[in-house]
Design brief:
Rossmann fold; 7-stranded parallel beta sheet; 15% strand; globular
Length: 254
Protein backbone atom coordinates (compact mmCIF):
# COMPACT_ATOMS: atom_id res chain seq x y z
CA UNK A 1 0.00 0.00 0.00
CA UNK A 2 1.12 3.56 -0.73
CA UNK A 3 1.20 4.69 2.92
CA UNK A 4 2.38 1.50 4.61
CA UNK A 5 4.46 2.24 7.73
CA UNK A 6 3.41 5.90 7.63
CA UNK A 7 1.82 7.69 10.58
CA UNK A 8 -0.77 10.37 9.85
CA UNK A 9 -2.76 12.90 11.85
CA UNK A 10 -6.00 14.32 10.45
CA UNK A 11 -7.61 17.17 12.36
CA UNK A 12 -11.35 17.74 12.21
CA UNK A 13 -11.82 14.12 11.24
CA UNK A 14 -14.89 13.11 13.24
CA UNK A 15 -17.14 14.06 10.31
CA UNK A 16 -17.32 15.47 6.81
CA UNK A 17 -14.19 15.88 4.70
CA UNK A 18 -11.88 15.04 7.59
CA UNK A 19 -13.63 11.73 8.22
CA UNK A 20 -13.25 10.72 4.58
CA UNK A 21 -9.58 11.74 4.58
CA UNK A 22 -8.94 9.60 7.67
CA UNK A 23 -10.71 6.60 6.12
CA UNK A 24 -8.83 7.00 2.85
CA UNK A 25 -5.38 7.28 4.43
CA UNK A 26 -6.09 4.26 6.63
CA UNK A 27 -7.40 2.23 3.68
CA UNK A 28 -4.09 2.90 1.93
CA UNK A 29 -1.99 1.59 4.79
CA UNK A 30 -1.50 4.63 7.01
CA UNK A 31 -1.74 4.51 10.80
CA UNK A 32 -4.12 7.38 11.50
CA UNK A 33 -4.67 9.60 14.51
CA UNK A 34 -8.28 10.77 14.21
CA UNK A 35 -8.15 14.16 15.93
CA UNK A 36 -11.21 16.25 16.71
CA UNK A 37 -12.73 18.28 19.54
CA UNK A 38 -15.60 15.73 19.39
CA UNK A 39 -13.85 12.77 21.03
CA UNK A 40 -16.81 10.40 20.81
CA UNK A 41 -17.12 11.15 17.11
CA UNK A 42 -13.40 10.52 16.62
CA UNK A 43 -13.68 7.22 18.48
CA UNK A 44 -16.53 6.16 16.19
CA UNK A 45 -14.31 6.81 13.17
CA UNK A 46 -11.53 4.77 14.77
CA UNK A 47 -13.93 1.86 15.17
CA UNK A 48 -14.91 2.17 11.52
CA UNK A 49 -11.26 2.04 10.49
CA UNK A 50 -10.28 -0.86 12.73
CA UNK A 51 -13.33 -2.90 11.73
CA UNK A 52 -12.16 -2.53 8.12
CA UNK A 53 -8.72 -3.84 9.09
CA UNK A 54 -6.93 -0.52 9.45
CA UNK A 55 -4.95 1.05 12.27
CA UNK A 56 -6.14 4.17 14.08
CA UNK A 57 -6.40 5.96 17.39
CA UNK A 58 -8.50 8.90 18.59
CA UNK A 59 -7.27 12.19 20.03
CA UNK A 60 -9.30 15.04 21.48
CA UNK A 61 -7.90 18.40 20.39
CA UNK A 62 -8.76 22.07 20.24
CA UNK A 63 -6.70 23.27 17.28
CA UNK A 64 -6.50 26.81 18.70
CA UNK A 65 -4.73 25.56 21.85
CA UNK A 66 -0.96 25.31 21.30
CA UNK A 67 -0.43 22.91 24.19
CA UNK A 68 -3.19 20.57 23.06
CA UNK A 69 -1.87 20.59 19.50
CA UNK A 70 1.63 19.72 20.70
CA UNK A 71 0.17 16.93 22.83
CA UNK A 72 -1.71 15.58 19.82
CA UNK A 73 1.53 15.33 17.85
CA UNK A 74 3.47 13.73 20.68
CA UNK A 75 0.65 11.26 21.28
CA UNK A 76 0.77 10.14 17.65
CA UNK A 77 4.54 9.68 17.82
CA UNK A 78 4.27 7.72 21.06
CA UNK A 79 1.62 5.44 19.55
CA UNK A 80 3.05 4.92 16.06
CA UNK A 81 6.74 5.83 16.35
CA UNK A 82 6.77 8.80 13.99
CA UNK A 83 4.73 11.51 12.29
CA UNK A 84 4.95 11.36 8.51
CA UNK A 85 1.73 12.99 7.30
CA UNK A 86 -0.21 15.88 8.81
CA UNK A 87 -3.55 17.01 7.38
CA UNK A 88 -5.21 20.22 8.59
CA UNK A 89 -8.96 19.86 8.02
CA UNK A 90 -10.56 21.43 11.12
CA UNK A 91 -12.47 24.57 10.24
CA UNK A 92 -15.86 26.25 10.05
CA UNK A 93 -17.58 29.38 8.81
CA UNK A 94 -20.79 31.35 9.10
CA UNK A 95 -22.49 34.09 7.14
CA UNK A 96 -22.40 37.72 8.22
CA UNK A 97 -21.92 41.09 6.60
CA UNK A 98 -18.58 42.53 7.68
CA UNK A 99 -20.27 45.75 8.84
CA UNK A 100 -22.49 43.69 11.17
CA UNK A 101 -19.91 41.13 12.32
CA UNK A 102 -19.00 41.02 16.01
CA UNK A 103 -15.29 41.20 16.71
CA UNK A 104 -15.39 37.96 18.69
CA UNK A 105 -16.97 36.16 15.71
CA UNK A 106 -14.22 37.41 13.38
CA UNK A 107 -11.61 36.27 15.90
CA UNK A 108 -13.16 32.81 16.24
CA UNK A 109 -13.23 32.16 12.49
CA UNK A 110 -9.63 33.32 12.07
CA UNK A 111 -8.51 31.38 15.14
CA UNK A 112 -9.93 28.05 14.01
CA UNK A 113 -9.33 28.30 10.26
CA UNK A 114 -5.95 30.08 10.18
CA UNK A 115 -4.31 30.09 13.60
CA UNK A 116 -5.32 26.45 14.04
CA UNK A 117 -3.55 25.54 10.81
CA UNK A 118 -0.48 27.56 11.83
CA UNK A 119 -0.23 25.77 15.17
CA UNK A 120 -0.69 22.37 13.56
CA UNK A 121 1.90 23.04 10.86
CA UNK A 122 4.34 24.38 13.42
CA UNK A 123 4.07 21.38 15.72
CA UNK A 124 4.12 18.86 12.86
CA UNK A 125 6.95 20.66 11.08
CA UNK A 126 9.13 20.68 14.18
CA UNK A 127 8.58 16.96 14.72
CA UNK A 128 9.31 16.12 11.09
CA UNK A 129 12.52 18.19 11.13
CA UNK A 130 13.67 16.42 14.29
CA UNK A 131 12.96 13.00 12.75
CA UNK A 132 15.08 13.84 9.73
CA UNK A 133 13.03 11.62 7.39
CA UNK A 134 10.95 14.24 5.59
CA UNK A 135 7.17 14.38 5.62
CA UNK A 136 3.97 15.61 4.05
CA UNK A 137 1.77 18.45 5.28
CA UNK A 138 -1.56 19.06 3.55
CA UNK A 139 -3.77 22.00 4.45
CA UNK A 140 -7.41 22.33 3.52
CA UNK A 141 -8.00 25.69 1.88
CA UNK A 142 -11.09 26.61 -0.17
CA UNK A 143 -12.18 28.25 -3.39
CA UNK A 144 -13.13 31.06 -0.98
CA UNK A 145 -9.42 31.91 -0.84
CA UNK A 146 -9.70 33.42 -4.33
CA UNK A 147 -13.42 33.94 -4.92
CA UNK A 148 -15.07 36.51 -2.69
CA UNK A 149 -18.30 35.35 -1.10
CA UNK A 150 -21.09 37.65 0.03
CA UNK A 151 -21.29 37.53 3.85
CA UNK A 152 -18.17 35.35 3.91
CA UNK A 153 -15.56 37.94 4.83
CA UNK A 154 -13.94 36.18 7.78
CA UNK A 155 -13.88 32.77 6.13
CA UNK A 156 -12.52 34.14 2.85
CA UNK A 157 -9.78 36.03 4.70
CA UNK A 158 -8.84 32.95 6.73
CA UNK A 159 -8.65 30.64 3.72
CA UNK A 160 -6.62 33.17 1.73
CA UNK A 161 -4.25 33.16 4.68
CA UNK A 162 -4.06 29.36 4.55
CA UNK A 163 -2.91 29.52 0.92
CA UNK A 164 -0.07 31.93 1.73
CA UNK A 165 0.83 30.01 4.89
CA UNK A 166 1.15 26.90 2.74
CA UNK A 167 3.45 28.60 0.25
CA UNK A 168 5.71 30.10 2.91
CA UNK A 169 6.01 26.77 4.71
CA UNK A 170 6.90 25.07 1.43
CA UNK A 171 9.86 27.45 1.15
CA UNK A 172 10.91 27.02 4.77
CA UNK A 173 10.53 23.25 5.10
CA UNK A 174 11.51 22.07 1.65
CA UNK A 175 15.20 21.71 2.55
CA UNK A 176 14.21 19.11 5.15
CA UNK A 177 12.38 16.94 2.63
CA UNK A 178 8.99 18.13 3.90
CA UNK A 179 6.42 19.15 1.30
CA UNK A 180 3.56 21.49 2.16
CA UNK A 181 0.58 21.71 -0.16
CA UNK A 182 -3.10 22.57 0.04
CA UNK A 183 -6.37 21.25 -1.33
CA UNK A 184 -9.09 23.78 -2.08
CA UNK A 185 -12.57 22.25 -2.09
CA UNK A 186 -15.44 23.85 -3.91
CA UNK A 187 -19.00 23.35 -2.70
CA UNK A 188 -18.87 19.90 -1.08
CA UNK A 189 -21.72 17.89 0.40
CA UNK A 190 -21.00 17.45 4.12
CA UNK A 191 -23.01 17.68 7.35
CA UNK A 192 -21.87 21.32 7.51
CA UNK A 193 -23.49 22.17 4.15
CA UNK A 194 -26.67 20.13 4.45
CA UNK A 195 -28.65 23.19 5.58
CA UNK A 196 -27.42 25.39 2.73
CA UNK A 197 -30.32 27.17 1.09
CA UNK A 198 -31.62 25.84 -2.21
CA UNK A 199 -31.03 29.26 -3.78
CA UNK A 200 -27.34 29.34 -2.81
CA UNK A 201 -26.82 25.73 -3.89
CA UNK A 202 -28.47 26.33 -7.26
CA UNK A 203 -26.55 29.54 -7.92
CA UNK A 204 -23.23 27.95 -6.97
CA UNK A 205 -23.71 24.80 -9.01
CA UNK A 206 -24.68 26.89 -12.05
CA UNK A 207 -21.02 27.96 -12.09
CA UNK A 208 -19.60 24.41 -11.88
CA UNK A 209 -18.81 22.85 -15.28
CA UNK A 210 -18.99 19.35 -13.77
CA UNK A 211 -22.63 20.02 -12.93
CA UNK A 212 -22.59 18.55 -9.44
CA UNK A 213 -21.48 19.23 -5.88
CA UNK A 214 -18.21 17.86 -4.60
CA UNK A 215 -18.11 14.73 -2.47
CA UNK A 216 -15.78 14.20 0.50
CA UNK A 217 -14.16 11.36 -1.46
CA UNK A 218 -13.14 13.84 -4.16
CA UNK A 219 -11.22 15.86 -1.60
CA UNK A 220 -9.79 12.81 0.17
CA UNK A 221 -8.38 11.43 -3.08
CA UNK A 222 -6.49 14.67 -3.71
CA UNK A 223 -5.11 14.57 -0.16
CA UNK A 224 -4.04 10.97 -0.68
CA UNK A 225 -2.09 11.95 -3.78
CA UNK A 226 -0.29 14.79 -1.99
CA UNK A 227 0.48 12.54 0.99
CA UNK A 228 1.83 9.73 -1.18
CA UNK A 229 5.24 9.10 -2.77
CA UNK A 230 3.71 10.11 -6.12
CA UNK A 231 3.78 13.76 -4.99
CA UNK A 232 7.42 13.82 -3.87
CA UNK A 233 8.23 16.77 -6.19
CA UNK A 234 4.98 18.68 -5.63
CA UNK A 235 5.50 21.51 -3.13
CA UNK A 236 3.83 24.82 -2.34
CA UNK A 237 0.83 24.10 -4.57
CA UNK A 238 -2.93 24.45 -4.16
CA UNK A 239 -5.03 21.83 -5.93
CA UNK A 240 -8.58 23.09 -6.36
CA UNK A 241 -11.05 20.21 -6.32
CA UNK A 242 -14.15 22.08 -7.45
CA UNK A 243 -15.45 20.60 -10.69
CA UNK A 244 -13.98 23.51 -12.66
CA UNK A 245 -15.60 26.30 -10.62
CA UNK A 246 -12.36 28.23 -10.13
CA UNK A 247 -11.57 28.14 -13.86
CA UNK A 248 -14.12 30.93 -14.37
CA UNK A 249 -17.84 31.43 -14.70
CA UNK A 250 -19.76 29.47 -17.29
CA UNK A 251 -20.97 31.48 -20.27
CA UNK A 252 -23.93 30.96 -22.55
CA UNK A 253 -23.01 28.56 -25.31
CA UNK A 254 -23.80 29.63 -28.87
Amino acid sequence: MELENKSAIVTGSASGIGLEVALTLAANGGSVTVADRNLSGAEAVVRQITEAGGTARAAEVNVTDKGRVAGMVEGAVAAFGSLDIFVNVAGFGFNSLIVDMAEEDWDLVLDVNLKGQFLGCQAAGRRMIDQGTGGRIVNIASTAANNARYQGGAYCAAKAGVVQLTRVLALELGEFGITVNAVGPGFTETPATVETSDEYRTNFLAQVPAGRSGRPTDIANAVLFLASPLAEYVNGQVIYVDGGYSAGKLTVRG
